[in-house]
């Protein structure tokens, strides 16, 4: 591999990064080559379609487009928001794992909450690891941030900020989105459009829109399941009744 | 020991797994052979009937039914719900301890909340470590889950998901239950019926029903005690007044 | 030292254990011989009367009454209630430190909340490390608990439950108290009366009552100070405004 | 360097310490010579004016006034308030780093909340590492505390309390302030006036007042941005939707 591009799409606002990265995996027929498990992930097992259980994990995929090798990171979760230490540890492990590959560029994908405001055509807001990248990508449809003090939480921010100190260069691409309880395929599409323009590739977006619709349905189903859910929830029990002999 | 079956029944929804596993211990006259202590358990001592104090713990029992050796795990508690790291650590220790025994099958017992809905005849929902086990157990009265995305929290999920990676094969059995503040002997009975059918054994359920009644009374007594409780609660004091000299 | 009795009086319900232990220090003119610091204690410095700052700590005192050597543990705080790991670590360190002394008996002092109910003559409820101690101390004015399932939180419970496994024998003495926001000298007096009866010593309680009154005044002063307090509180600031350059 | 004075101004009440220390950096034209990163800091990257991302950090500056060498510590954040362990670790690292320099005096700067009460002329309240320093600084405009039991949270308190045990001598200077959601340049000015009187230096306060005004404007802007913010917030998503495949 020579021209290796690393793309991160872990869960975040509107699942935008995750949707975009998974679509890219599908469209480039990328193959999983590594998995990341951590005791900093939620202590639960997920039920698969064949009724088997698996741990929560992050996954590395490898795909190619032209002469570009894509390494794509997606996954079920990031550490809990109260566990800063876990976030730093996992991002460090990811970078240590990637360093030997010789990553030429990193793109972290995510969302940017408008605070509920619905946007007709979501902008893609950007931040970079090195200042000269603004110049390099200024014609790629990215709105570079000029609000000093803004913060990018989790892997999308840490990978670039830590990568900067290890000479990994890259851009964070955040699609504008009304916010949380909403799977935002429209914003994911905007992010992918910018990314494909940068990489000089063409991505069919049809499946992304269908996927978004399916996902919305799945979410409704899951929210419905939450009351009558399979989740064996330990906390309340162990606190209130766990000391019964 | 040749045909060794491991059964987990730590506290969870409706104390279903704990009730079922403790009943099995009683009915098979199983003997305790090991204890698990952890700094990830709540920092409190429990008062026993003879007024002695003991640490919170998990316990391993050994019993036999026919040619089956049962290793049964029960206990006072699991780590607190905010401590994912502790959950992973304890499940890892349990598996490390069990591996040398050569476990042939693992059953984790628990509850599945219907979100308050009372069910006449609780179903037993299942998930497996390996897909072929669905076929093996399809006539055992288990409703195998087909809701991808559902999660099983704590030891019942993690033991199977982690066991899968160490070639320990097994099934998670979850009895339907209205939910939390309720000791659900009916669901525990359903779970035990499935388990005894699988193991080809007969278990007298009379004591389980009596036990459930006793437990309900004990709970009321304990809830009553909570206000005028022996619990030496440290937090508020140390925060507000602890710095007085 | 031959007949060494260890007494724990760290902060808890009604500061009963702390008040009792500090009174005993005063009355026996015990001398501080060791201090315990921990990163599991609150991250704050305390202002002393001479305007100097010191870390939060626990303190070991040595006193003698007749042929009894007293080792008394008091302090500013215990770890935060969400930090079970810290509680276990500190109690382990305390026991490791004490073991070489050859402790012949341990008494942990604390409170037992009645849930607000004011009691005319507070009982002293007890629990033991070894069952035969109930017989030994049955005429000492202790009401031994027979509520299986009750829990004693923090050092008072853990020291005895862990000490049990290291052959340190002892009793937990809990004075009945209406509960939290109340410095309960009356309950502390009850606890000390039981303890002095056990140790066969006489303790002047006058100062304890005066001390309690002073403490109540100090608390009011401190509560008053909390709004206009010297506390340099970091959290809110660092979360909301800390990212300003 | 011979006469080395260490000044801490990390974020706290009213950002008083931070404002004062940053003004001192500006006025003495101090230069950054070291940075401190920690996995105990919030897991987010900050966007700089040039759209580059950087980790949260603390920074050490070196400046000179006359024959005094100033080492000034400022930064974006302290560990989260629930992470006592992180606070102790970072303060320990800071002291270990500073010890070889041979610090002759340490001043920690911060705020003291009046609980909302606006003060015309903020007093500067003080506490010391060693009792004789009260005498030394009694004519410097410091009101030394005589409220035993008061606590100073975070680095301002810990540095002096821990420094005391490593023979680093110093004073904590806290400007009176109405409290939290308020950038208090007036209190910062009071603190700097005391500090410059002690150090025998003159500091132009004009820029501090302007700076405070700018900061207030920036805060309004940031608060406004919070709804439509760039923050890629992970928690809610990963908890509710993160387990979608």
Describe the structure.
- 4 copies of one chain form a homotetramer.
- The first copy, chain A, is an alpha/beta fold and 245 residues long.
- Chain A has a single domain (3-205), classed as PAC-like subunit (Rossmann fold, 3-Layer(aba) Sandwich), CATH 3.40.50.
- Helix content of chain A is 35%, strand content 27%.
- Chain A has 7 helices and 11 strands.
- Chain A has helices at 16-27, 84-98, 132-136, 155-164, 185-199, 206-227, 235-240; strands spanning 3-8, 31-36, 44-47, 53-55, 58-65, 68-75, 103-113, 124-128, 142-144, 151-153, 170-177.
- An 8-stranded mixed sheet of chain A has the order 2-5-6-1-7-11-8-9, sandwiched between helices. In chain A, strands 3-4 form a two-stranded antiparallel ribbon.
- In chain A, helix 1 (16-27) crosses helix 5 (185-199), helix 2 (84-98) packs across helix 4 and helix 5 (185-199) packs antiparallel against helix 6.
- The longest helix of chain A has 22 residues, at 206-227.
Share in helix of chain A: 25-40%
| Mean of pLDDT of chain A | 86
Using only C-alpha atoms, the radius of gyration of chain A works out to 19 Å
Total strands of chain A: 11
What's the story with the biggest beta sheet of chain A? 8 strands, mixed
Tally of separate helices of chain A: 7
Question: What would the principal axes of the Cα set say about the shape of chain A?
Answer: globular
Described by its quaternary structure, the protein is: homotetramer
Q: Structural class of the secondary structure composition of chain A?
A: alpha/beta
Strand order of the largest sheet of chain A: 2-5-6-1-7-11-8-9
The interface involving the most residues is between: B-C, 46 and 68 residues
CATH superfamily of chain A: PAC-like subunit
Order of helices and strands of chain A: EHEEEEEHEEHEEHEHHH
CATH architecture descriptor name of chain A: 3-Layer(aba) Sandwich
What is the rounded distance between the termini of chain A? 60 Å
Beta content of chain A: 25-35%
Report the top-level CATH class of chain A: Alpha Beta
